[in-house]
Sequence to fold (409 residues):
Amino acid sequence: MPSPVSARAFFRDPLGYAIPGPGDGPLLRMRAGAAPQVLVRDPDAVWQVLVTDGDRYGVGKWKRRARRVHGPTLNTLNGAEHRTRRLALQPAIGRPRVRELGGVLDARLGGAGADWEPGLPVALRDELFTLSIGATADVLLSVELGANARRLALDLAQLMAALPRLRPPALVAQHRAALQSVRSFADGLIAARREGAQGRPGDLLELLLGLGVADEVVRGEIIAFLLAAAEEPARALEAAWWLLARDEEADRRLAQELRCVLAGRAPTLADLDTLPWMRAVLDEALRLNPPARYIDRCPAGVMAVAGEQIPKGANLLISPLVSHRDARHFPEPEAFRPERMLGERRGTPRGAFIPFGAGVHACIGEPLARAIMGLQVAAIAGRWRLAIDPAAPEPTPRTPPLWVVPEPR
Ligand code: HEM
Fold:
């Protein structure tokens, strides 16, 4: 068996490990502190860990760290507790609910980019964060953020950037202030609802308060949902526009599809099913630059994965980033080719394309995320071509926010 690689080397250049070398198996062992760390990069083994044996794994060490900050939230719970919480919250965020609230999303996002000026640079990530958080707060919490949306989005972005490292109480002052501000926001919502403020019937806040858990747990859950909603769709869209700015043909085809379907009007949620090229562009951007780069799991006992024994307590890593660049399933994996995402991706094994994860912890927000992303792209790309400095690096969690210059279509 090949000797373990250093975890530091892996995280410095994860894509260098996308293709197993000669003699390497489906697992990549790493040297990383006391507990063994293992990357699972074979799609069948990924499926086995996340789905087939999903119940036999607990959350990994990153989520245990997040739990120290936000408490026992849906994404950090295990087993029966997780199942019960998920079933209880699903009605507030599942596909039927998102469809039911399509009008709210249309009103929030259908005009995205309408107030931009030709030639005036826009800080894309800030804009997208703010729009996403405004829509999510309305749909899930029945709250109008108004001018507070930008402040909340900035605080959430600060928190998200710090999360993998957060170890209370040693937060740096900046992160402590952001955490405090987001907590006060959530506490204010809870207090207002307890004092009789009306929300939309069946919203997430109502379901959370109905769980009969401490307000601190409700607060942690609100923050965890807002974090996911602010960060992930905006990152995916930033990557999509960076790719589109480099591919005139893909961008032209997108504009043409939008012209045919919308004929100049604002997009609605119902339109998204009739925009296959736009969906393919987004899927291909999610393949190349998945906002959730790593998923981790911890086996509850000794487990066999791809024929090898994984000890209890090991940290198993699954990386959408690495898996999505496997040339065996995505020929010329570095290339942006939305056409490969048209149709049912026939021939691609389950476990090869997992931007939203899979199994018991699969993203509960996928329908909302797809609605938020689709409406924003349709609204903005229908009006503007976004020019991006050709020297701007491909967006990653470590690159500075992208500036774009809107040019009228
Ligand atoms: C492009 C957007 C998004 C991507 C790529 C994404 C990706 C993911 C992934 C990969 C997971 C699985 C993590 C694991 O298995 O450990 C996950 C879980 C989760 N996501 Fe998302 N997400 C997105 C948007 C959202 C949104 C908008 C929300 C809610 C407003 C959300 C809420 C959640 C929650 C609560 C979980 C935990 C589910 C559970 O453990 O049962 N996500 N997401």
Summary: The mean pLDDT is 91. The first strand starts at residue 5 and ends at 6. Residues 215-245 form the longest helix (31 residues). The chain is about 45% helix and 10% strand.
